[in-house]
Amino acid sequence: MKLYAWAVYAFLYLPIGIIALFSFSAGRSASQMQGFSLQWYGRALNNPFVMEALWTSVCVAFLSALFATVVGTMAALALTGMRGRTRKVFDLLVQIAVMIPGIVIGIATLIALVSVFDLVNPWLEPLTGWKLSLGSGSLIGAHGLFTMSLVVLLVRGRMETLDGALVEASSDLGATPMGTFWQVTFPQVLPAILAGFLLAFTFSFDDFIIAFFVAGAETTLPIYVFSSIRRGVTPEINAIGTMVMAASLLMLIAAQLLLRRSQAQARR
Amino acid sequence: MTQSRARALLLTPAGLWYAAMLLLPLAVVLIFSFGERSAIGGYAPGFTFEQYANLPARFAAFRNTLTLAPVGTIAALLIAYPLAYFLAVKVSPKWKTMLLVLVIVPFWTSILIRSYAWIFLLGGKGIPALLETIGLDDVRLLNTPFAVLVGIVYGYLPLMVFPIYVALEKLDKRLLEAAADLGTPPWRAFLQITLPLSMPGVLTGSMLVFILLMGEFLIPAILGGGKVFFVGNALVDLFLQSRNWAFGSAVAVALVVIMLITIGIYSRLVKRFGASRDDVGLM
């Protein structure tokens, strides 16, 4: 049984390890280890296309995660302890947004936005001189939809385990509802909110399929990697892949630690 | 400010976003699926069932998806179950969390990069080269249905392990002790106690994996080499290359309908097993 578990872990981590290993190769072949060097990391970091795609990805991930965290947290606060039809409608919307495959979100957003832009642009362009098109804005909007739902689930989950006695004690001691919120409730929910932000960032940064449809003329890092793979794998792609994985890994560890802390607080 | 007004204010941005970025786009897909392809590509208004009648033109994509998705789900289940059992029952609490996190971490890293790693492993210098040393020549793995299956199992294994683990973790171990005291052999105790009680986890995991597989594009695109394509690949072609939005929308609606049927079957089964649904938190 133990041996079996080891085998499954090897299965899960071997491919990741191989990419990381090959990225340090000194040779030109992407699928062979020839000496050790960091040259491919240097190449990747000096490639203007890579850097531009990276910058787009980071901006989109940061802004969509920020948006998702703020809007999602607000919704989660309102939904906690709420009953009735509104609650049911929102629960359903959150579920649909989480369950529906990315590819359907991608095409639906693509054709809806292009249709809306076609309607609006003939009016907008003569008036303001610029027109709406797909790009970072639509990426942020589409990523924000999924990640906002993720934040709602995380923050609401945390809210529902909060100790109501603390809030009561605070108001008994004369604190205003706003004061109670900022000094009692918010600090306790904060780790879950931050974890939500990190997960939202990771999702957006790693997403390929939604971006593939709604990025328009923009290139995100996953889109760059995908089109490079189509042309053939190079050690440079291995280096980029290794860096992307390392970055996601750091984000995940941070999110885990935050969630652990919030759970520990809940037990106290 | 009253509480209900505060609530309404807090919910407004999220509500607007769901309306604009979820409900409107889904409605557009539904409307477009009854329309026609305009001469320059894209969409022309209309009301026709032509696009739906035309669905058999993409029969191969649906067939591939509807064979490889269930097979992949079952393969992932068979591999995940023993691991989930091991983690929930055998591992000491000291190591449990860390081992569990190690299962989930790959799921949150780029599926694109994880899938393309298999190009090395399944390509000429990988596993086929190993097989050659034991006398099996000319084994082609890359760009076959098998490669896609490996990619699927690899990509979605974490999603299967987690719900099964949650179900097994809740299992009352005194039931197994009682069974043993009454002289039940372990394999019967497993079949009659452990397995039925873990069914909610098995069902949740299977449904999640199956639904995500239905919309898969990357794994067949990278490991199937254009020979093994899914509905997802047909959608990319219809929307980004041939720009036949009306037909593409009909394909997307068909995909969503199949998924809804799956969810329907799932909730029926969950009810029959008389267990409450486990909410799956992947963090």
**Uncertain stretches of chain B:** 276-283
Largest sheet of chain B: none
Give the CATH topology of chain A: MetI-like fold
Tell me the domain tally of chain B.
Answer: 1
Distance from N terminus to C terminus of chain B (CA atoms, Å) equals 36 Å
Oligomer: heterodimer
Q: Class of chain B in CATH?
A: Mainly Alpha
| SS summary, helix count of chain B | 12
Q: What is the CATH C-level name of chain A?
A: Mainly Alpha
Helix percentage range of chain A: over 70%
Structural class of chain B: mainly alpha
**CATH architectural label of chain A:** Orthogonal Bundle
N-to-C order of helices and strands of chain B: HHHHHHHHHHHH
Mean pLDDT of chain B: 88
The value of Rg of chain B in angstroms is: 23 Å
Structural class of chain A: mainly alpha
What is the strand content of chain A? under 5%
Query: Uncertain regions of chain A: pLDDT < 50 for 5+ in a row?
Result: none
How many domains make up the 3D coordinates of chain A?
Answer: 1
Largest beta sheet of chain A, briefly? none
List the helices and strands and how they pair.
The complex is a heterodimer of chains A (268) and B (283).
Chain A: H1 2-22, H2 39-46, H3 48-79, H4 85-99, H5 102-128, H6 136-160, H7 164-172, H8 177-206, H9 209-214, H10 221-231, H11 235-267
Helix pairs in contact in A: 1-11, 2-11, 3-6, 3-8, 3-10, 4-6, 6-8, 7-8, 8-11
Chain B: H1 3-32, H2 50-53, H3 59-90, H4 93-104, H5 111-122, H6 127-133, H7 145-169, H8 173-181, H9 186-214, H10 218-223, H11 231-241, H12 245-272
Helix pairs in contact in B: 1-12, 3-7, 3-9, 3-11, 5-7, 7-9, 8-9, 9-12, 11-12
